[in-house]
Amino acid sequence: MNFFGTSAAIMALAVGLAIAAMLVTRRTHAPAGANPLLVMLAGADWSFLVTPVLTGAMTLVAAALLYHRCTGRRDYPRYWS
Predict the structure, then answer these.
(1) Across all residues in the chain, what is the average pLDDT?
(2) For the whole model, what pTM was predicted?
(3) Contact indicator for 52, 60 with CB cutoff of 8 Å
(4) 28, 40, 60, 65: most buried by Cβ count inside 10 Å?
(5) Once rounded to an integer, what is the mean pLDDT over residues 43-69?
(6) CA of 60: how far to CAs of 20, 41, 55, 57, 80, in Å?
(7) Residues 6 or more apart from 34 whose CB is under 8 A from it?
């Protein structure tokens, strides 16, 4: 992922794009803005997106679906747009 380097401008752009994506999808979580910084400073490669990130996201969604299925609530997810 260090294709663009780790200059301050590139890292600021990465954080800005991450927060913009969160705002567009209405899923703002300010601490997640630090994720691009950590990935770039750690020198992670592209497999980092598959191993912990995708697996963790799928686990969270599966747990949420299971919880809502067990509690009988059927209003998940509330927003798809």
Answers:
(1) 81
(2) 0.57
(3) no
(4) 40
(5) 85
(6) 22, 25, 9, 5, 17
(7) 15
